[in-house]
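Why does residue order matter? Because the sequence determines the fold. Keep that principle in mind as you read this record.
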Amino acid sequence: MTTRSTVLTLAVLALCAGSAGAQQAPTIPIRPLGPILSKSTETFLHIAGVRGVAGGVLVNDPPRRRLVRLDSALQVSVVVADSLNAKTIYAQRGVGIIRFTGDSTLYVDVTSLTMLVVDPAGNVMHAVAAPKAPDMQFLVPFVNGPLGIGPMNTMPGIDARGGLIYAAQFRRQPTPPTPGQTTQTQVLSPDSVPLVRGDFNTRTIDTLWTLRSPAAGTATVTVNPATGQPSKFVIKYNPIQVYDDWAVLSDGTIAIVRAQDYHIDWIDPDGTKRTTGKMPFDWRRLTDEEKQYFADSSKKWLQGVIDSVMQTAGKPPFTPEVTVAKLDDIPNFLSPVGATRADLDGNIWILPTTSLAARGGRLYDVVNRKGEIVERVQFPPGRALEGFGPGGIVYLSLKVGNDTYLERARLR
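Structure:
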């Protein structure tokens, strides 16, 4: 599962493990996930999308530039794309995979602005044109997408009309520099972004709804007046971000999980919009000490990521510096939405950021089309939800050191 901030997830779990607050609502049953059936022998550096297909699963690993198909025993059966040997070269800027019509999958290559259709066996069948080529950057993980400065969490999907659903970005006019000004500050991400539908036939884009996006912070560039070149780059990062999430169900229904009060807005297959009621969530006000913990942890994590990237870039003239927002500017409550996925049975799986049962493994809220939490499913320790497959199959990731394994389990 690709979250927007790994350190935030770890910090939440650490805080919740020691919480002595009230337990989850007793009327919602909690059950363990079904048995684990197999574990991959292949390891991945980072899983950024899985697609369960008949007889196997496609796994996307952008850091290692590989897209592979595993069989039901999670053994590699086909290398769909890689950087060297496959017929399809894995794009330098990364690749996205999206559920397409039938049992096929869209392979999104931002570098060449192409979209390939891959069959369940992992074979490339043909190419299709994107509804809007410049927006292809929003279809691929590991780019600075509209929902924050890190990888996008929710993968795009296909609605009931065959349209491509994704989070784009409102057009913003760049701020021209002031003559003689040596510093310029820009917002890292906008306050809101559009959830859009792209039509493959007409090449048109329609805005469906607006999403609240995380207020990640600002970036300030200082320019040397003598050379006109940047001499300093400072990121001011907000460690707690409140944002909406969304998912596309298998029948094309769109569910938008609102973070402000934990309810869902729906767009049904016929285009009807509706809203369901608030769902129970353990709202707990953060103390200044907890805010400081998040601030310190986030600063260390983000600075480490930047330093690692800069080392691979050679010897830059300067290294970006990370600062954090003041405590008064950090939200008083954690966002209830940590990650959202849709299963193949019409349910939404939401990982709340504050699960009091997290000490035994991640606890997911399973929500039906009425917007009701019908059950909570406890995952084995160390596992995260990656996706679903036919026949009641769920795919999990397990991180061991720097490697990540994929596991196949039953829902029940």
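Confidence is low (pLDDT under 50) at residues 1-25, 143-152.
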